[in-house]
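Request from the bench team (R.T.):
"We need a structural guess for the complex before ordering more zinc ion. Sequence and SMILES attached. Just send the tokens back."

Command: build protein-zinc ion structure.
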Amino acid sequence: MKTQPAFDCDPDFRRNPKKSFFCWRCQKDLKPEQSVRWIHLINGGTDILHPESESEYVPDNGDMAMFPVGMDCAKKIGLEWTSEHPELIPPVAS
Ligand SMILES: [Zn+2]
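Reply to R.T.: structure attached below.
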């Protein structure tokens, strides 16, 4: 199974999101017209699951489900680690 430590994404938790739909990595609000990518956080949020590994992954207590990221952050994480559509229902809805 391919996973990438999420700490490599350099998330910025200092910012306080104003809306419930925001980029997981930089905490900036995501506007409806903005394109977003989705990451699947596992192991309590410390790792990103590679989309190709979805079929091998057995959800456990550390499964944090899908989180949206803006395009800039998705490129920094690596687009191959993100999905175009969430396969799971996102934990937050705007
Ligand atoms: Zn971002």
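Two things stood out. The CA atoms of residues 61 and 67 lie 16 Å apart. The radius of gyration is 12 Å.
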